[in-house]
Amino acid sequence: MTRLFFSPAALALATLLLLAGCATPSADAPARTPPVADPWWGGFGSTELPAFVAAVDAGNPDGDAAEARLRQAEAQERITGASAWPELSATADVQRQGRLGGNASVSGNRRALGLDARYEVDLWGRLRAQRDSAGASRQASAFDRDAVRLALRAGAGAAWLEALGLRERTAIARRSLDDAERLLQLVEARARAGAASPLELAQQRGIVASQRRTAATLHQQSRAADIHMARWLGQAGSEVRITATSLQQLALPAVDAGLPADLLARRPDIARAEAALAAADADVAAARAAMFPTLTLSAGLSAAGPRFGTLFDHSVYSLAAALAAPVFDGGRRAAARDLSAARREELLATYRAATVAAFTDALTALDAVAALDTQRAAQDEELAQAERARTLAESRYRAGAETLLTLLDAQRTLFAAQDARAQLLQARLQASVALYHALGGGWSADEAAAPTRLSRTAR
């Protein structure tokens, strides 16, 4: 029967590896990530808006920076996780020594190989707590990336709607300018016929100049919005042009009277606060364990000789166990424990603040949606009456039954109502985006039908 022989050094190294395998941390639960919210943007009935949001999601440098921070946290987790394994180091040494004296020379060769292992036994859970902290920090970085992405999507969508809204307001101002110039021709004709005074002519010319200035201002703001959209794409010195021409072409994403409160739980900022709090808990445990003794096991195997053939004829092994206990460090470990505890209290308060902010954001967004719907209903009536008053004022002025002052007032009122309609529609569309952001992403009809509700009356 064949016998197997293991040297004491080999047994020691095997023991260290076995201990390390037993101490390997268990796999962390998969990180929570918000559901993909991109399909939600299709609720506006535009193909251009989802494409722009997707381009921002892929090309914005803030998103790239968040991804890089996540990779840093993943690398740090691997660094910290290495404490579960022993440290192994190998050495090789080749030397030639000689002495020269007179006509005689003495020389010799020396070759050496060595293998050393070192492992710290996690008696009090300090190393495991450090690994837990690193894992929670990695999850916090993942949620931070998701929060950045969510903010980028919402900001890009709001910017796109603002640019389109300014384009529509500019078109309204130009149509109003054309109308004012047409009426100016009417007043000039009446003035030449002696039916209109110089005062009336000056007043209408003033209306034309005012509308021209307003149209120029809105055109400049529209161009600035187009240029600003390039910033969301991470581009400089360029201008993003959108093909959509009117807010009226868009649809309003359906919003239920009350949305499920569970939607708030997936907000990445809340998840990030939870993960940071978990990391702080692990830091407190690690700081407490650092105040207790540490046990380190080490083993070494070395061999040396003048030739490789005789290298293992005189091998040497070493086994050691070292117990180190802190005696006096000037209060450093105690201060580190207090620092970790205070940090945990801060993060607990941050988590509570994030939860309160989430509910506040959601309720505010729901209120804005409802209030803007009410305003738009009233404004539609206002616009209809302004159009009717404008038509009647011009008809009566042509017939000589009304003064120009009434027509001027009708012109201003109509333009203000048309401009207000565009601004309210833009605000209503952006309120949907704000609700999307407040709820941590898009929602589906099934989620909106959930029994648990977060309604505007839940205050």
Overview of this protein structure:
The protein is elongated. The protein is built from nine helices and six strands. It has helices at 8-22, 48-59, 61-81, 126-192, 198-232, 268-289, 332-398, 404-438, 445-448; strands spanning 87-101, 104-121, 258-259, 294-305, 316-324, 454-455. It has a four-stranded antiparallel β-sheet with strand order 1-2-4-5, with helices on one face. With 459 residues, the protein is α+β, with helices and mostly antiparallel strands.
State the gist of this model.
By secondary structure, this protein is an alpha+beta fold. It contains nine helices and six strands, in the order αααββααβαββαααβ. Strands 1-2-4-5 form a four-stranded antiparallel beta sheet, with helices on one face. A two-stranded antiparallel sheet has the order 3-6.
Q: Topology of this protein?
A:
Layout: H1 8-22, H2 48-59, H3 61-81, E1 87-101, E2 104-121, H4 126-192, H5 198-232, E3 258-259, H6 268-289, E4 294-305, E5 316-324, H7 332-398, H8 404-438, H9 445-448, E6 454-455
Antiparallel strand pairs: 1-2, 2-4, 3-6, 4-5
Helix pairs in contact: 2-4, 3-4, 4-5, 4-6, 4-8, 5-8, 6-7, 7-8
